[in-house]
Amino acid sequence: MICAGIDIGSISTKAVILNGSDIKGKLVISTGYNASQAGDRVYDELLDTIGMRRSDVDSVVSTGYGRNAVTFADRAMTEIICHGTGAHFLKPDVRSIIDIGGQDSKAMVLDPEGRVREFVMNDKCAAGTGRFLEVMARALESDLDSFGDLSLKSDNPSSISSICTVFAESEVISLISKGESREDIIAGIHESVASRVAALAKRIGVSEPVMMTGGVAINIGVVRALERALGLTITVLPEYAQVNGAIGAALIASRL
Amino acid sequence: MAEETKQKDPGAEERKIKSVKRMKEIMTGYYIDAKTARKNNNKVAWITSGGPVEPLIAMDIIPVYPENYGAMIGASKMGVELCEKAEEMGYSRELCSYARGDVASAIVNGGPIGGLPEPDLLVCCNNICGTVLKWYEIQARYFNVPLFIFDTPISHTNFSDSARKYVRSQIDEYFEVLESVTGEKFNYDKMGEVGKLSVETQRLWQAILDTTMHRPAPMSAFDAFFHLALIVTLRGTQTCIDYYRELLEEMNQRIASGISAVPEEKYRLLWDNLPIWYKTRWLSDKFASHDTCLVADTYTSAWSGSVDMLKEEDFIESMVDGYSRIWLNIGTDIMAEGILKMIDKYDVDGVVMHSNRSCKPYSLGQYDLQKIIMKERNLPTLFIEADMCDERNFSESQVETRIDAFMEIVKEKKASVK
Amino acid sequence: MDIINEFRNVLNDPYAYAGEWKKKNGKKVVGFFCSYAPEELVLAADCLPVRLFGTRDNIVHADAHLQSYSCSLIRGALEEALTGRLDFLDGAVFPHTCDSIQRLSDIWRMNMKFSFHWDVVMPVKLNTESAREYMRDVLHDFRDELSSGLGVEISDEKIQEAIALYNRIRSLLKKIYEIRSKFPSVISGSDMHAILRGSMIMDRHELPGRLEKIVEHLEAESANAEDSSAMRLMFTGGICDFPDIFTVIEESGGVVAWDDLCTGSRYFEGSISNAGDPVSAIAERYTSRVICPAKHASVTSRGENITELAKEHDIAGVIFLYLKFCDPHSWDYPYMKEYLDRAGVPSMLLEVEDRLPSEGQLRTRFETFIQTL
């Protein structure tokens, strides 16, 4: 059975195609300003890459903030369930999931059968999301992709106390002018994100095994900071972290 | 299209609650009486929602509830404008939106009926919160009328004898204030009658709320939010009893004929905290689209929650406990016990908590309640972060995503339980 | 002044001080958050009452129990408790004040396992005979609970001793304030702050001696004091846990000549009679002293009080200082401002979150305000 999952986020759109339980292909593109077009584009491009057509696919599930704009989906599911399903598939013993996306962050607790039991979301505030890191990367005139490695070089993270992203940016700029090192500042930025997300997760109580999903999971600095904030080990599968939601959507499509 | 197709509900007309029409007539009449009070040589008292209203009725004083008006302001979507006016006056945006709205409404004669009638007396009972004290102080300064404060100490774990004595003395002080405002002796005979009516009203209200134990529920919490207005404003009157008898009768008929609030009730939830007044219809439809009925809530049941403490034959004495040990005036852990009881009584599949910026006594502690609910009943809780009256604090698409995600969890859980 | 450094040191690490005091004396430490806490009874029970504030660290754990729309005092206090930094405490006393503290008490009691937890549900209304009587009853009940909880006898004599001690401490603090008001140049705002805050932590038996030394020193200094040309300002509001704010004000050309703060004059205002039943005497002080906005004495008492203080201390400008999400203070602000406007006293508002705004922002605000006076 061939199934597809489409995850339309605010910044990136992901697609995954499964054949049974084999991942036949995955793709990440920029969402741009038109969610519906992004859905079409990612789907058709991925199909092209693996030499398939739309008619080869038995069912499609869409997720993410743009899920209702996907005209060809058989069903729309929220990303909470999709992330839970995807993570359980990738690591069947996972009990807690932390997902930091472009515009929100969430935590989920699963039961032993892999069903989501509780979830908690921050969908109101940029602090603790990918957006926060982007804003900081601009302020530091740094490449966001290098953040992870750079932060690991620091053994004295700067302290960033502002709760608000906009004011934190001013704080970072004044740290630069005070001569604090780039590595320390980035490490401080990661601590800031980690403490916000850890606070959110503690509301529903996370326990091991923990998996991190979403684009920010590829940032090793944030992962380590989050491990310290929670006092737990976190598993990241870098190859699948960003497409985890789409994987889950495709799996749900296979059960329709 | 991936969106769930909205089917036209064939029984929509049948599903409408018929008593609603009569209720609207009664409330209109009530507000007309209040607004023409002066012309008819009647006195008007503003009183807090948890305040002891029976003595006012015994002395023929018309009680007016700024909080009920706050709900009307929210429901008419006039909350934002009035709150902004209050902010211009120097009141912080973080303060309770009922109070902000009322303070502004008094100045501009705002809200759906062009302002409340001016009070001759203010009666402030702090059993619901400390904000009412400040709210009523403001109105006392503004209207330059007597302010009676009925100070009901909180029972974190128990209601002390000292507190009981204090509250009892204040009942006498209350009667003295009413005597001085009306120039009449306190009418103990009428008080006895009003007390009996009040107890009966509360029993009827509880009976109405109990009808939703039935599967499927003949009405939802959203209906209860609407019908609540009478027990708040007209408790202790025959009008109120007659109406609730009618409503109870209609609910029983609906049960007998199989008419339910939600066309296909598959999932049942409990609501905690005040309603989101400007979104009740939207929320009701949203949950109904998931075949879900909010069958009960902690807010409307607070108006009959004291019924076991009140005694018809000794109403005045029983008012002490009846007005002090109400839902919000107890420790969070005692509230938790109450919630677990309701979960069992109404057999719900989950809990929806409105994290209401305007109401700290109701909202602070909800995170601990969520943990207790999961631990003791293994049920999920949905948080909706909003405000009861100030629409600026509500984000529709975010709330929609949360509701969808929560319902997905509830459905999966139910499906897995054989 | 060396003796003021002792206060500063305590303030730098109050928990360490309390922990050492415990070890040295083998007695118990009781935390409190509010000026209505009946410290006299806690002291009479041979415990050290230690005033707690928020946290200097980031708030992470408390967010699992309290929404973000609550003040940094309760969120910070809970944070300190949950992280274990308050493990030296034997318990805490929660007098009833506002809705936020009320729920903090429940959440604290439900989540922490301190040996003792006392709720002292005082009346909100303070202007009737029945309220006075209830205040007396509440304090008698508290004395009984303290006694049975700690397993100690709290005799009337012990209470009278505690009363005498607190009367002494409060009148010395008041004296220091009065000297400062007359001669602002003899003591800095941050030193003043350290003395007040330190007095809420240190061994109360040692306090009068220390405070007397300070008074002596200041009286000597005031003999040759230069006239201060700084603008005379007054704070009104809740708690002030920000020593740096005084430095910024002083560098901007102002001086805090008096205050109407929970951690300032409201802390020491009002003495206790030594006639009659001691517990009732204590009750009388808590009933009749200058109120905070969570209590009710009359609908205009705070407005009248602030206007009188401004006149009495020749105040050029008033700064409203309170925490964001503090409902009681926030509600009183418009009408108190109106009272000051009518009396011709300019004012400004500073709402603070966990920490003060950046120094640059603060300086700009104060300089602007002072320049308009």
Strand order of the largest sheet of chain C: 2-1-3-4
Terminal-residue CA separation of chain C? 32 Å
Largest interface: B-C, 47 and 50 residues
N-to-C series of helices and strands of chain B: HHEHEHHHEHEHHHHEHEHHEHHEH
Overall geometry of chain B comes to globular
* Average pLDDT, all residues of chain C: 95
Query: What share of residues are in beta strands of chain C?
Result: 5-15%
Q: Compute the gyration radius of chain C: what is it?
A: 20 Å
**Mean pLDDT score of chain B, rounded?**
95
**Which stretches of chain B are low in confidence, meaning pLDDT under 50 for 5 or more residues running?**
1-6
Number of strands of chain B: 8
Distance linking N and C termini of chain B: 32 Å
* CATH class category name of the largest domain in chain B: Alpha Beta
Globally, the shape of chain C reads: globular
Strand composition percent of chain B: 5-15%
Quaternary status: heterotrimer
Number of structural domains of chain B: 2
H/E element order of chain C: HHEHEHEHEHHHHEHEHHHEHEH
Keywords:
heterotrimer; A: 256 residues; alpha/beta; five-stranded mixed beta sheet; globular; B: 418 residues; Rossmann fold; 2 domains; four-stranded parallel beta sheet; 17 helices; disordered N terminus
Structure report:
- The complex is a heterotrimer of chains A (256), B (418) and C (373).
- With 256 residues, chain A is of the alpha/beta class.
- Chain A has eight helices and ten strands.
- In chain A, helix 2 packs across helix 8 and helix 3 runs parallel beside helix 5.
- Chain A starts with a strand and ends with a helix.
- The mean pLDDT of chain A is 92.
- Chain B is built from 17 helices and eight strands.
- A four-stranded parallel beta sheet of chain B has the order 2-1-3-4, with helices on both faces.
- Chain C has 15 helices and eight strands.
- The longest helix of chain C has 27 residues.
- The model of chain C has no long low-confidence stretch (mean pLDDT 95).
- The chains are: A alpha/beta (256), B alpha/beta (418), C alpha/beta (373).
- Chains B and C meet through helix 7, helix 8, helix 15 and helix 16 of B and helix 5, helix 6 and helix 14 of C.
